[in-house]
Amino acid sequence: MIRRRSTPWIHRWSRPAIAAIAGVGALVTAYLTIEKLMGRTPGCLASAGAEASSSCADVLSSPWATVFGLPLALFGCLAYTSMVVFALTPLAVNPTQNKALRSQLENVTWMLLLAGAIAMSVFSGYLMYVLFAKINAFCLYCIASALFSVSMLTLTLLGRSWEDVGQILFTALIVGMVTLVGTLAVYADVEKPNDTTTAQQVQLEPAGDPIPGVGWQITTTSGESEIALAKHLKEIGAKEYIAWWCPHCHEQKQLFGKEAYSYINHIECAPPKAKKLAPECEAAKIQSFPTWEINGKQYAGVKSLKELAEISGYKGQTNFKNFPNAFQ
Fold first, then answer.
1. Between the CA atoms of 77, 78, 81 and 82, what dihedral angle is there, to the nearest 10 degrees?
2. Handedness of CA 160, 165, 168, 172 (dihedral sign)
3. Model pLDDT, residue 191
4. Are 224 and 62 in contact (CB under 8 A)?
5. Whole-angstrom Cα distance, residue 182 to residue 173?
6. How far is CA 181 from CA 111, 123, 126, 187, in A?
7. I need a surface site. Which of 162, 247, 287, 314 has the fewest CB within 10 A?
8. From its phi and psi, is residue 37 left (phi > 0), alpha (psi between -120 and 50) or beta?
9. Domain 9-191 classified CATH 1.20.1440.130?
10. Against a cut of 0.85, is the pTM above it?
11. What is the pLDDT of residues 205-263, one digit of tens each?
């Protein structure tokens, strides 16, 4: 009698394990997508501390977090959901009743799992490069996603008896190259170094009379870099002391743009009809406007966004949209 060789445990449990990992990834990315669309900043795990939470905010508000105008997490959710479907579809077919269909589905879905896991691992590798080399931050969500991708790839490779190793290498080469080229193409604009010749020239000087207590209306719009810098300044507790009648304060607002400036913690030092500075401004001994207070130090005068980025320790993208002649 010939004893039938038992199926290795990893072959029996690889598909459920892949589905479980992909399911967790789908839930996490769905959460990130909802938070992004709602305009909220997702929180990191409490154990990571305040510094990690701030880094998460920087990463998830960076230009790399948006693709084709949509949250990157949305595409991640779709990818994870597809992996769940690929992993579980053959298990829905009873092998004793329809062995041929079960076998065909397993062969097809194993190749789809392999291609998907390779693509996700390559893309995650690029994001890890961006995380530590470009943004210089720590994001638990990003690292967890990379670990999920590598884990699924490992389970896919070990989860069945691949008869043709050359097929695996060929698939890895083709899918990897296509994914890398596609990724670089998608982020080509983000990866471009700052080019002041293409920056939007903005009108800094105000026109007409200021609105009492308000000043002049901000006429510029904000890019993602301006918004990310403004959020960073808010998170580190930076303050800007201004006066509504001050044209230089308006110039600083124009550099940020309307959307980004809404995040700036600005303190009005000259309330209408008041005969002296606001108490907070007097306590800070403000002598000119605008004056920035960043990390315990004061910086007087209009600052370019690059200067503010350097002073505040901002590590995100600096391809600022608004670029006046004065700072070229």
1. -150
2. positive
3. 65
4. yes
5. 14
6. 21, 10, 11, 10
7. 287
8. alpha
9. yes
10. no
11. 788 889 888 899 999 888 888 999 999 999 999 999 999 999 999 999 999 999 999 99
In whole angstroms, what is the distance from residue 26 CA to residue 229 CA?
A: 29
Residue that the structure tokens 């598909």 belong to = 15
Closest among 3, 36, 26, 164 to 85, alpha carbons compared: 26
Burial classification of residue 127, based on how many CB atoms lie within 10 Å of its CB (0-12 exposed, 13-18 middle, 19 or more buried): buried
For 17-32, write each residue's pLDDT tens digit: 999 999 999 999 999 9
- The confidence band for 50, taking pLDDT boundaries of 50, 70 and 90, is very low
In CATH terms, are 9-191 and 197-327 the same topology? Answer: no
Contacts for 262-265 with beta carbons within 8 Å, 24 or more apart?
Answer: 262/230, 263/227, 263/230, 263/231, 263/233, 263/234, 264/230, 264/233, 264/234, 264/238, 264/240, 265/233, 265/234, 265/237, 265/238, 265/239, 265/240
Where do the structural domains in the chain lie, given as residue ranges?
9-191, 197-327
Homologous superfamily of 197-327: Glutaredoxin (3.40.30.10)
Q: For 86-177, where are the E strands, in sequence order?
A: none
In whole angstroms, how large is the CA radius of gyration of the chain?
Answer: 27
Which class for 81: exposed (0-12), middle (13-18), buried (19 or more C-beta within 10 A)?
Answer: middle
Residue type present at position 11? H
Alpha carbons 186 and 67: distance in angstroms, whole number: 7
Residue with tokens 């471009």: 192
Nearest to 252 by CA among 238, 268, 236, 264: 264
CA distance 9 to 20: 16
In 3-state terms the chain splits into helix, strand, coil percentages (rounded to 5) of 60, 5, 35
Contact predicate 281/269, CB 8 Å: yes
**Which residue in the block uniquely carries the two structure tokens 């006429």?**
219
φ, ψ of residue 127 to 5 degrees: the values are -65, -35
